[in-house]
């Protein structure tokens, strides 16, 4: 559904939580590694024992600054941490250390192709733990729950957009673009399934010109597909209520993957419900302008810059440059292939053509295959030097390299895939073909040039596609007259 097909305007703002890729937690030395045994990565600080003191992780601050700069934010040299107080069994301190009125980054922009989405702020905060619902399943839970505090105090940045998003497609494009930038910066692993990135969707509907409607917030949506489905469902739900003249309740809702529906969780709390106050155990976060300049200078090439460079330097078209730079790992792979001196356009075409096709079909990432940049470069060189044909490479070689990583020369030798470039051998076949197809020869000689293609086809068939097309054509020039 696009914005123009909707009866009501949708107004969407996103709050994206991204886990920073630090080795240790935000306020203690515990590991942030995913998948450890429950409560293995905990200590008195992240378990909320009384009397312990938090120590701020410098690396996390560095990563937050990087994200802010890459998103065009102003970095506040004087920010601070606050306590956000609520009760939940996965939050043993009874409060979360977050940033309230003085976040580290403000006023950024993220371009999503069709528009600029304004970013209101980026603040740092610690994650809560996780409840594991055990025992007999009931509709909204289970008999009892277990608390796993491995996640507790993992560093997060929360990137809050302005309500500039007007449909599900734009919301997905926004999160995809944001994820791409964070991956390029190497500050977040972007793994949505493991919860490294998740988003809260604020959504309201209004009739054109009638001000903002009441919003619902859908919590913790963690895949592109769910973002899209949750918004579609919420549009339907809210528009049906409005059609009936009913009011939208301001509330927090939960998206359920299996049914594709959202359910009311609780009435939406306002900021004052949390009784924010400055964290007394941490000093204000004071940064130096010089330091920010240094971080700015150290930023890597970002997706848009890389795409533009590929167009200029490698003469790729926009579409190809975008396809390759869309995934940081693919772009790195591509640059390594080019280090071997192969043609930039040809290498790009292999990546976005047959290789992308294989990855799609097998639901794999490039890094999960056996193909190395060196191997792909070797194969392209063998095509360029006429040892193998483009078609043989497409039909008989590339998938084998992706699946097994076999040495390409060995594969060609074992399966006899090399092009036949022996003019004498091909000449004999061309002569045989002509001798066996006298009727077609007469047609050609009486002025039907299309028949030439028939002869090329017959020679290719006789050589299993391995004869060099250039040699066949030279021979036909000579022998058909
Ligand atoms: Zn700890």
Can you describe this structure in just a few lines?
With 481 residues, the protein is an alpha+beta fold.
> What is the averaged pLDDT score?
90
Number of domains: 3
The outline comes out as elongated
Radius of gyration: 30 Å
Number of helices: 15
Helix content: 25-40%
Structural class: alpha+beta
Low-confidence stretches: none
Distance between the termini: 62 Å
Number of strand elements: 16
Distinct ligand kinds: zinc ion
State the major sheet. Answer: 9 strands, mixed
Q: DSSP strand (E) fraction?
A: 15-25%
Strand order of the largest sheet: 2-6-7-10-1-11-12-13-14
Notes on the structure:
- This protein is an alpha+beta fold.
- The protein folds into 3 domains: 3-293, no CATH class; 301-415, no CATH class; 423-479, Orthogonal Bundle (Arc Repressor Mutant, subunit A), CATH 1.10.10.410.
- Helix content is 40%, strand content 20%.
- The strands form 4 sheets. It has a 9-stranded mixed sheet.
- A hairpin with a 4-residue loop joins strand 6 and strand 7 (116-126).
- The longest helix is centred in the middle third of the chain and has 20 residues, at 224-243.
- The chain is elongated, with a radius of gyration of 30 Å.
- The termini are far apart.
- It binds zinc ion (ZN).
- Residues 25, 28, 30, 42-43, 45-46 line the site of zinc ion.
